[in-house]
Design brief:
The protein is of the alpha/beta class. It has twelve helices and 23 strands.
């Protein structure tokens, strides 16, 4: 009897991986809709338009959000984060954004029959998504609830921000420009000039800048859309060569470093679905949280150290060889051997040690307790999402870029 609504990125809803799960939800009575980005016919690059949020609202009281999609890979192979919130104002803001997006989205048709893929089938590559129709104009609605605010290093910040409703990059630059001791970033995609220049200013005034990147975005393989060897984005190369303390991380079985978070002076935290790219700011629906809550910041400090402990420094000779390549290297050539991907004699099905955990479970919904934050790989994100759904009594509203977890479905 729980009311369940799901909002899914339109391109993902057509992919080989995701379509069976969207069909499955719709077939079983879940009100399922799809949505692209906010710009519609005015977009300069329609393929970049995405509904890229990763959040879930349960009973209108609990929000689960972070970098992790509701996918098997997010829980097993990737480096990810997810956390739970119950502040009424923040929950109301997430509910407002969900209502807006759901109102302008279009229904996903329910098939008469659907068969979900096996876990083995989920290992296949996702097909390239087709082009999407424009998003209809948003109906008039009451204003977005005002965010709570806090002051960090003399500047005021909201506790949450949503694209396209609120600016995000200006808050990132402001926090980095106010840094006194340290800036720590774990990011999946990067091409924001404003953020790079802020990091360079911080480095020049003596701030220790540490960055964790996805290894595959620096040591690129495969073929580019132009037919030549795929190479790192120019701004990723500039970031890596800026003299910062850079570590490269990658999961196993083609897992990725998919986190997107910023720590400043080990006191300020920004995290969410937002990559540091111009597309995230200009073309996507996105959400981030900002906080100085000591316990939550402390968890991310521990997780950042965990990422670095499981990473490696940049091999600049290898990077130069990649930048000078004239022929593509098959993607399979850059994957670890099977033996190295196994966890050895450990009971964990991962080569990595367990990520940090929250010793407390202070976030409550209907008598069920949740930690402030959960991390991957194999830290329990999928299980916690399922527990949250099981605890819901009134509603489940999902805004998810990618979705291929059978237990969650």
């Amino acid at each position: 009897g729980v009311k369940v609504r799901a909002l899914i990125d339109e391109s993902q809803s057509k992919s080989e991986y995701f379509k069976p799960f969207a069909d499955y939800l719709a077939h079983h009575g879940v009100e399922t809709k799809v949505l692209a980005g906010p710009n519609g016919e005015n977009s300069d690059f329609p393929l970049a338009e995405k509904m890229h949020n990763k959040f879930m609202i349960l009973d209108g009281k609990l929000v689960e959000t972070g970098s992790a999609n509701h996918t098997k890979r997010a829980s097993i192979d990737n480096f990810e984060n997810a956390h739970f919130l119950t502040d009424a104002t923040d929950v109301a803001a997430f509910a407002y954004v969900f209502k807006h997006m759901f109102g302008v989205a279009r229904a996903h048709p329910a098939p008469e029959r659907v068969d979900l893929p096996t876990d083995e089938q989920l290992a296949e590559d996702i097909l390239n998504p087709p082009a999407k129709p424009p998003v209809p104009p948003a109906p008039e609605e009451p204003p977005l609830p005002a965010a709570r605010t806090f002051v960090f290093n003399g500047r005021q910040y909201p506790t949450r921000a949503f694209r396209p409703f609120d600016p995000i990059v200006s808050h990132l630059v402001g926090a980095i420009d106010s840094a006194k001791k340290t800036v720590k970033i774990a990011i999946y995609q990067f091409d924001q000039r404003e953020v790079l220049e802020a990091l360079q200013r911080a480095h020049e005034r003596g701030v220790a800048v540490q960055v964790v990147l996805d290894r595959s975005h620096v040591y690129t393989t495969g073929t580019s859309h132009e037919g030549g060897p795929r190479k790192p984005r120019p701004m990723v190369v500039e970031l890596v060569k800026s003299g910062f303390d850079i570590m490269l991380v990658h999961g196993q079985n083609r897992g990725i470093q998919h986190n997107k978070f910023l720590l400043v002076d080990d006191l300020f935290l920004e995290t969410g679905s937002y990559n540091y790219t111009t597309q995230s700011e200009d073309d996507h629906f996105e959400s981030v949280l900002m906080t100085m809550e000591k316990a939550r910041v402390g968890l991310y400090r521990r997780y950042f150290k965990y990422l670095r402990d499981n990473g490696a420094e940049v091999d600049f000779d290898k990077l130069e060889e990649i930048l000078n390549r004239t022929e593509a290297v098959p993607e399979a050539d850059d994957v670890e051997p099977e033996a190295a991907r196994r966890g050895g004699e450990t009971e964990r099905d991962s080569k990595f040690p367990p990520p940090p955990t929250d010793a407390e479970n202070p976030v409550m919904l209907n008598g069920e307790a949740f930690p402030r934050a959960i991390f991957s790989p194999q830290g329990g994100i999928e299980e916690a999402v399922i527990r949250a759904i099981d605890a819901a009594k009134l509603s489940v509203e999902v805004a998810m870029f990618s979705f291929y977890s059978r237990p969650i479905a």
